Amino acid sequence: MEKIDNLFDKIVKIANSRGFVFNASSIYGGLRSSYDYGPLGALLKNNISGSWWKDINQDSKVSIFPIDTAIIQSSEVWKASGHLAEFTDPMVDHKPTGERFRADQVPENLKKEDLTEPRQFNLMFETNIGPVQNENSAVYLRPETAQGIFVNFENVQRTMRAKLPFGIANIGKSFRNEITPGQFIFRTREFEQMEIEYFCRKENENEWFDFWVNKRLEWYKGIGIPEEKLRLREHEENELAHYASKTVDIEFDYPWGWGELEGIANRGSFDLSSHESSSGKDLSYFDSETNEKIAPVVIEPAGGLTRTLFALLCSTYDEEVINDTTRTLFRFNFEIAPVQIGILPLSKKEELIKVSNEIQQTLQKFFRTEVDVTQSIGKRYRRQDEIGTPYCVTIDFDSLEDLSVTIRNRDSMEQERIKIEDLLDYFLKI
Asked: Are residues 225 and 336 in contact, defined by beta-carbon separation less than 8 angstroms?
């Protein structure tokens, strides 16, 4: 695919105009770095997270258990995990304007002007629980989903009778009071994560670390992100998180350059040991076959759901010049596309609408469909292209006689005529 000029601006524009992403509180002027996901964006997010879960759940090499943990946890959780003390970014003020920036994200044109000395800023959102606000009522919105998994380690292991190695997976929202959010939905204060904590024996940590790096990289390729737009980057020693002995990022080549999609970290036994020490609860693993207590090592693949959605929009957006006009489209995979099949009656005549509705009733039991009846057939094709619909089914007046319809392929724009009774089998074989 050729490089597209102004890709970032085009993605933002089409995301808003076609119902993928809206600026939050837009009727009130919007809220910086806060976004709502429209009908197509919500579907796309669901399809991405569903693919993520399917990929790990159906892999016979691993045992994974799902969990959905609370956004608000005890403050003791964040004290034990180190977030209250360590989850900070260096912040500077631009003295002439009072603007604040993360120290490593100061705009080039301001770097030579008056800046304050960096100071640490905790990224967690603090709020209060209960009717009385005092020193005992402070709680925090979770900055990651991982800690909810760690504090439930014993619960899951006990109720599921889980044996090492096994993983616990969580998809959910996290909150970070970013100093300088931006770049559309790449860096926001409210975002969604897809996290796995995989518990294993220390002697197998390197094997499982490599397994998860490779598995996660292959998944991104499988949902439609080109291999050349992905790379692995291992953290230098001075940038490792306080809990990690090794971290490898999967990065995507966004319009402005490389940015993190997912981090795979070896967290060792830091988290379970910290919570065990703080809570007094035994969080070791007892091996009934060898009668030994084990402190599991944790390999953590932590990906960004909303960042993945953005990367997918950037990867699949395309433009083609056809007969002196530009065709704009998203080349989503069939399994990922928000709408898989567009159903287009050639006119609004009752008899064609009736056939269209009957076809939708058959197909929507298995696929995501949309009946589109507004404007000319050419404009409707273009609209379906712009939302990434892989196939369109056109019902014309001949369909009333030969009981056949025309299927149009989004990518090749080739058309073929098939019997209505064969439609379901046709799409089930894709």
From this structure: no
